[in-house]
Fold this protein.
Amino acid sequence: MTFAKKSLGQNFLIDENIINKISSLIKIEDQNILEVGPGTGNLTNALLKKKPKKFYVIEKDDNLANLLKKEFKDKIIVINDDILKVNENNLSNEKLIVFGNLPYNISTEILCKWIINLNDKKIWFRNFILMFQKEVADRILSKCNSSHYGRLSIIANWKLDIKKIIDIKPNSFSPKPKINSSLLFFSPKKNFLKIKNPKNLEKITRIFFSQRRKMIKKPFSQVFSNNIKIAKKLKIDLSLRPQNLTYNTYYELANEYEKLRS
């Protein structure tokens, strides 16, 4: 019997209805697939039935990786490694459809890594179909002027179109988590504001949201040395709070920051 490891944030998906729904969301036949955190292989098995061209799985847990190799043999390519250490751009010459019941403890870190490292000239994936804690999914989907809006919302929506597919109850997993989960569907945007160094967007959002209840005048001065011309150019009211600025305003702020530093 395989036991979930709390240290790895493991909750295995066991609900056949949810598994079938996920595997039917997109055409898989003759496509290259990547599954992150396949666990005991319940979703893996359903995806294989859809006849993918090539199937990669990334599983950090040594025992589970060995179990998957024995169970599926040469039907899948098992990468026994930490997803945060894997260079996703080198996985395949063809674009991948990515499925993942992401470990709750590092799900946001995984998503942000993929976005920040994204090579705009050679996008390595077709879609992400990923499961998060519902609270995290709400933050990813949130718009400005909402309580969940913050750094994750801004970074996630920069290069990706995102929609919620379904909320999932704890009974669909083993062991049962204490919270609900949400399945999100991500597609790469064709048009988005280019930022030379994505870490500048991370920096600006970190500074602005470090005091999310206070006016943005102080963080703005910290980033731009009180350069009021930029606020006027972008039509920003410095008496607003961080959650009152749109996604695009933060992308424009990152661009202005780069211009000053170049």
